[in-house]
Specification:
The protein is an all-beta fold. It contains 1 helix and 21 strands.
């Protein structure tokens, strides 16, 4: 009886980000002799409800770049809908093989300041999954409100940010929405609170006092034109960290509220959106 063939060694891909938001993949494939593709597949849970199977797959040609290496480019001009995209290489044998990350250089992403002239911000960050595979996290926000700096002071949170893809006008404000099933709503019982915004061109700042928030989770939305305009989810996307939640941690403030004493503070969600957690504590 012939013993089974040993599993093929994983294919390793180096990734380089550019200042425009594009990515380059260099795949080590010494024995490839024919046409090859780098294939990105969006995970099922991240797909839009009306998306087609073709829309959830992006194929990029892998061309020889050096001895034993193939290169594919994902320019910022190629649309990559928001979600997590698992990376594969399809070499001349026709079988897609999962890629693992090699050397990753994302320094340009941390220094990137998009112009916002296209009306949207596109961000792609490659990262290693828990299983050690290569996946690209993509965001496509139109418009986008970037949380630049968070500060605690006197039982309140002050946020400074920058808006891309639209303008701030007089009457802009921030809306805090109690997440369904989380907490008792705002101080007026509506589940929504609003705070004013100070703005200068694309820069904005606002302060959220914790003492009016009921226990629960609160999501933050910027309304750059007040009630008449769009609502824009606040997030931190413009750096090289794919998952902010375990990396960016913030102290909690203890304050008294009409609902009793609470501990409150900001955090980034699984999608790097900015939210507040308000937790009751023993008096």
């Amino acid at each position: 009886m012939t013993p089974p063939a040993p599993p093929a060694a994983p294919l390793r891909a180096d990734c380089i980000g550019d200042s425009a938001g594009g990515l380059t993949f260099d795949v080590a494939a010494r024995r490839n002799t024919g046409a090859a593709l780098l294939v990105l597949r969006r995970r099922v849970g991240d797909a839009d409800a009306d998306a087609t199977a073709d829309a959830d797959t992006v194929s990029l040609p892998l061309a020889p770049a050096a001895e034993g290496r193939l290169r594919a480019a994902l320019p910022s001009s190629v649309s990559l809908p928001e979600g997590r995209w698992d990376a594969y290489a399809r070499l001349s044998d026709g079988r897609p093989r999962r890629l693992v990350p090699g050397v990753t250089d994302l320094r340009s992403l941390a220094e990137r300041t998009p112009s916002g002239l296209l009306g949207h911000v596109a961000v792609r960050i490659p990262y290693a999954t828990r299983q050690g595979n290569l996946t690209v996290r993509s965001w496509l926000r139109a418009p986008h409100a970037e949380a630049v700096d968070l500060r605690h002071a006197s039982g309140a949170l002050t946020v400074r940010g920058r808006l891309y893809g639209t303008r701030l006008v007089p009457g802009a404000d921030v809306e805090l929405r109690a997440r369904p099933g989380e907490g008792e709503g705002g101080a007026d019982g509506s589940g929504v609170r609003r705070v004013g915004v100070s703005a200068e061109r694309t820069e904005f700042a606002f302060t959220v006092p914790y003492d009016g928030l009921a226990p629960g989770l609160w999501d933050l939305w910027l309304r750059p034109a007040g009630e008449a305009g769009p609502v824009v989810r606040l997030a931190r996307l413009l750096d090289d960290v794919a998952d902010k939640n375990p990396v960016f941690t913030f102290p909690r403030a203890r304050v008294r509220t009409p609902y009793g004493p609470v501990e409150a503070g900001p955090y980034y969600t699984r999608d790097n959106d900015l939210s507040l957690a308000v937790t009751p504590v023993e008096a």
